[in-house]
Specification:
The structure is a single chain. It contains nine helices and 39 strands. The chain is α+β, with helices and mostly antiparallel strands. A hairpin with a 4-residue loop joins β33 and β34. α7 packs parallel to α8. The longest helix has 26 residues. The protein is globular. The relative contact order is 0.10.
Length: 611
């Protein structure tokens, strides 16, 4: 540890500001993690608190910031938003406890580092909003996001997040406007990753490819100088060929320019890195922070939720499907509301369970927690099953503290009835005649595109990129997309768009559903693809994760409420999907070998109702 601390101190003395990423492997947690696979955080947040307390103590004065996790809105974390917020708060409290040990010895508070939320991988959407209303904004010392889109859209994404944080999102259960009347603060802005994602391994070995990378950083850099976040970190210094496809490295293999660096390998500076080094670091003293409602939340009480029998976690739905049935047309399941007291004092208060929750028939419980205690409250969740509709549920712990102040913790999630027990009604089946969307198609063809964005051409009622042919079967409600070539634009997938009639709507409570597979004759057994809606302003909206087509049929079903802004479309306001008008159903096909034949059947907007 002494060696690492010395290295960090040297870097800081030379003017570097250090932000350390805080992550652990799932297998390292003695108390285990939630079921379901993927990247998970500890089930028992006392284990988290103890680990980060040691970090805060041992590395006090060595780092400037702690970044708590990475990209929780996509597959770098499979937890729901409320679980991540509980983890973030436990980390903040533990780090502060460790720093206080050093402060107690030195009598100074200079060693305190910023505790910064995990960066958002995608532009603002439902997952971000749930993070914010559950308290992420009050538990972070900076707003943090990543950017990998077209250079021309960077300022748009920046503006979307600013709008979401300052004016649109909720903070602590109150609207930003309501709370700002009482207290607000300045929140610095960080990009702990931004990079050019359209450089493949072959292009990374060419002057043309490396110049494209440099041009992207110059264009984004000019916008950064205007917008003035406090810190922006280019991704990534060492050669890094992600998934064997995309080269992000700013240092190049001396011999061929790309790939993964080996020990002892000679490296050289890319044009992009040369420009970044010449420009120098952002001037933090002249940064423009964002004003947000509410003060920092230093409450030592944290609420978490652990699903049990009958409850299935569904991250994209911001909650859980209740798979168990009860009398009276309700779906149900059981779980645990977990209450932590990370203070050194006893805390007594009231736990008010949110909508749909009860504990032995009660919706309100008196709870007294000793210092460091973890209390499990077993609960039952129930939700009406007459229609497929989510019920927002907010559980709150409150207790008097420090006179007029109140210890207050919040847990927000959503309960959904079991859709598999409901009948399906088709609202819209995408079988409309092309002429009903001709005007929309013309606007889509004429819309502004980024410099590296492929153009499309008409093919029947579809718009397609070069190398794609579409075949439709009305009898089977089937679409077949054969990809023989990818666009000329670097790093871009095959694209198809189905213009929609002016009358098309995708209402809350309805779902986009279809079946998909990769047909015989494809060069691969599996291939990735994405489905989006494009809105009138050019924005693209999707539900993460990316889809993988295989030889067998697989299903897709996502609610309108789940769609979030995506990169590689525009980044216009308003950013919420519900506040925009969808004008096209869009597919991006990402095969690594050609040809690839994707089949989609029974695409429809549906509504689920009780049978």
């Amino acid at each position: 540890m002494a060696r690492e601390k010395d290295a960090l101190r040297i870097l800081r003395e030379r003017g570097w500001r250090i932000c350390a990423l805080v992550e652990w492997d799932e297998a390292s947690w003695a108390g285990g993690v939630r079921a379901g696979g993927g990247k998970r955080v500890a089930m028992d947040l006392r284990d988290v608190w103890a680990r980060v307390r040691a970090l805060g103590r041992d590395f006090a004065g060595c780092v400037d910031g702690w970044e708590i996790g990475n990209e929780p809105d996509i597959s770098f974390l499979e937890e729901n938003a409320e679980t991540y917020v509980a983890y973030l708060k436990a980390c903040r409290l533990g780090l502060r406890a460790g720093e206080r040990e050093v402060e107690g010895a030195s009598g100074a508070a200079e060693s305190r580092a910023r505790v910064v939320m995990a960066p958002l991988a995608l532009p603002p959407g439902p997952y971000f909003e749930r993070l914010w209303e559950t308290g992420a904004g009050a538990a972070t010392d900076g707003f943090n996001f990543h950017f990998y889109g077209y250079a021309e859209d960077f300022s748009g994404v920046y503006g979307q997040f600013r709008d979401a944080v300052e004016r649109s999102a909720k903070t602590g259960g109150e609207s930003a406007v309501e709370k700002a009347g009482r207290v607000s603060r300045e929140l610095p802005v960080f990009l702990t990753e931004y990079g050019y994602g359209l450089l493949d391994g072959d292009a990374g070995r060419t002057e043309e490819g490396r110049e494209r990378q440099a041009r992207w950083f110059r264009e984004v850099g000019a916008q950064l100088r205007e917008l003035r976040p406090e810190g922006a970190m280019a991704f990534v210094l060492m050669p890094y060929l992600e998934r064997g496809i995309s080269e992000f490295g700013l240092l190049m293999d001396h011999a061929n320019g790309g790939g993964t660096a080996a020990k002892g390998q000679r490296l050289r500076v890319s044009p992009a890195l040369a420009w970044l080094l010449a420009e120098g670091a952002m001037d933090g003293e002249n940064a423009r922070s964002w004003r947000v409602a509410g003060d920092v939340d230093e409450s030592a009480v944290v609420l978490d939720f652990v699903a049990g029998e009958g409850l299935e976690q569904r991250k994209s739905f911001l909650g859980y499907f209740a798979r168990g049935a009860t009398e009276g047309g309700r779906s149900s399941g059981v779980g645990e509301v977990v209450v932590y007291n990370f203070s050194e004092e006893r805390v007594a208060g009231v736990l008010r369970l949110g909508a749909g929750l009860s504990s032995e028939g009660r919706g309100e419980l008196a709870v007294t927690l000793e210092a460091g205690e973890r209390r499990v409250v077993r609960v039952r969740a129930e939700v009406e099953a007459a229609a497929f509709r989510g019920v927002r549920s907010e559980t709150v712990f409150s207790a008097g503290h420090d006179g007029a102040r109140s210890v207050r913790a919040r847990l927000i999630t959503t309960w959904w009835p079991d859709p598999t027990m409901m009948a399906e009604e088709v609202v819209f089946d995408f079988s409309h005649e092309g002429k009903t969307a001709d005007a929309v198609a013309e606007r889509l063809l004429a819309r502004w595109r980024a410099s590296e964005e492929p153009g499309l051409q008409r093919q029947g009622r579809w718009l397609v990129s070069q190398g794609v042919t579409v075949a439709e079967s009305a009898a089977k409600a089937a679409w077949t997309f054969k990809v023989d070539a990818l666009p000329e634009e670097p790093g871009r997938p095959a694209m198809v768009e189905l213009p929609l009639p002016e009358s098309f709507v995708f209402e809350p409570g309805t779902l986009l559903e279809f079946s998909h597979r990769l047909a015989e004759g494809s060069a691969e057994a599996e291939a990735w693809f994405d489905v989006y809606f494009r809105t009138e302003n050019g924005n693209l909206y999707q539900v993460w994760p990316r889809l993988q087509a295989a030889r067998e049929w697989r299903g897709y079903a996502e609610a309108a409420e789940n769609f979030t802004m995506a990169f590689f479309g525009r980044a216009k306001l308003p950013w919420r999907f519900a506040e925009n008008r969808p004008v096209a159903l869009v597919f991006f096909f990402r095969p690594e070998k050609l040809p690839a034949i994707f089949e989609i059947e029974d695409a429809a907007i549906t509504r689920r109702v009780a049978e």
